[in-house]
Amino acid sequence: xxxxxxxxxxxxxxxxxxxxxxxxxxxxxxxxxxxxxxxxxxxxxxxxxxxxxxxxxxxxxxxxxxxxxxxxxxxxxxxxxxxxxxxxxxxxxxxxxxxxxxxxxxxxxxxxxxxxxxxxxxxxxxxxxxxxxxxxxxxxxxxxxxxxxxxxxxxxxxxxxxxxxxxxxxxxxxxxxxxxxxxxxxxxxxxxxxxxxxxxxxxxxxxxxxxxxxxxxxxxxxxxxxxxxxxxxxxxxxxxxxxxxxxxxxxxxxxxxxxxxxxxxxxxxxxxxxxxxxxxxxxxxxxxxxxxxxxxxxxxxxxxxxxxxxxxxxxxxxxxxxxxxxxxxxxxxxxxxxxxxxxxxxxxxxxxxxxxxxxxxxxxxxxxxxxxxxxxxxxxxxxxxxxxxxxxxxxxxxxxxxxxxxxxxxxxxxxxxxxxxxxxxxxxxxxxxxxxxxxxxxxx
Length: 444
Ligand code: ATP
Ligand code: MG
Description:
By secondary structure, this protein is an alpha+beta fold.
C-alpha cells in the first residue's frame, strides 16, 4: 500500500500546451512521465509501474511460446552494421557515436545484426536449432518529428525477438507461434490488437503483419472486417507445439480481412462494404519473416542434416512496449482521465479518505485498507489533506479501475462507496464486503 502524501506523483491540474493527444496529456498530468529532451522521457514511479506490468505480460507470453529471454546492449559497433550494409542505408534515424578511440558506435535502433552475430558465433549445426531469442531493451531512433509523447518517441522500449530455423517451413511455424503469442499478449492487457497484412517490401511474400489497436488518434487508416471486433483471438487450449492446429488457427485468423491503407484497395476488397469498417489505428507490434536476408551477409551459416552448409531462415518480432502504454490510453480514456484495464493498472484500487484526521473515517479506511491488502490488491491511499473535489479529480485522472470512498456519514454506519472507474457505477456497501465485491468484478 502506498500513501499519496508520500508518493512521488506530481499531478498537473492544467493541460500541458505541448500535448496534442490524450495519452500524452494524461500521462503528463497524472505524473507518469516527464520529457527530458525532445522525444525522450523519464518514467516517474506511477508510469514505471504500468511499463513494468506491460513488460511482464510480454515476457510471460514470449516464454510461454518457447522464446528465450536475453539482453543485448544498447550501444553497438558500427562494424556489425557495415557488414550487413545497413550502416549507410539506415540514414539519419541512426544515432551515431564515436568513442574515445575514435571508433564508430551507434545506439541500437534494432538488433538483427547483433543477434545474427551472437547466434552464428555459437550455433554451427542443425542440432542447435530451432531457437527464438528475444530481449526487452531501449532503442533509439532519431525520428525527424518525435510527437504524441511516447507514441513516437526517439528513445523507446521495445521487445524484439528473432527466430532461427533450418527451413522455410520451420520458420513459418515460428511465425505462427508468434502470431498466437502476440494475440494472447494483447488480450491479456485488456486490449484488442488486430493483425493486419503489412507491406513486405522487396522481400515479398505475405508473412508480415502489423498489430493495430483501433483509436481515433492512430496515425494510419485501417480497414477491418467487423468480425474482428467480436472474435476471441486467444485460442484457449491451443498448444504452441501442435503444428497443424496452430496452422489452422493462423489460417482462420488471417482469413478475416484487415489491412492498412498501404495494402487496402477498395476496388479489390474481398468483403462486402456493409461488413467493412474503416477506422484509425496505432501500430503496437510487427512480425516479419525475412528468410536469409541477414544470415547471408552476417554469415549465419550452419550445417544441415545432409552435411551441407546453408544460411538460417529468420524472422523478427517487435512489440513497442512503451508505445503500448500510450496506445492503451488512446483506446481507453474519457474526458476525466485514463481508464486502465485491470491487468496493467498501476494500482488496483484508489482509496479516498474524505476526512483525514477524523477518528471514524480514519479507522474505517484503515480496516478497508487491511482487507484489500489481505485480498492481494495493490492500493493507492489518498491520505492527502486536500479538498474532496481535488481527490476525486486526481483519482479519475490516474484511472485506477476501482475507487473506494470513505466519507464521514456512511463511515459512521460502517459503510463505504465503491466506484467502478470504467462504468461509473457506484455502490454503497458494508466495509467488510468491499474486497469480495472488487474481486467479483475483476473476475468479470
Ligand atoms: P512506425 O511505422 O510506427 O515508425 P516501425 O515500423 O518503424 O514503426 P518497427 O521497426 O516495426 O517499427 O518496430 C517495432 C515496434 O516498435 C513498432 O510496431 C512500434 O510499436 C514500436 N516503435 C517503432 N518506432 C517507435 C517510436 N519512434 N516510438 C515508440 N515506439 C516505436
Ligand atoms: Mg513496423
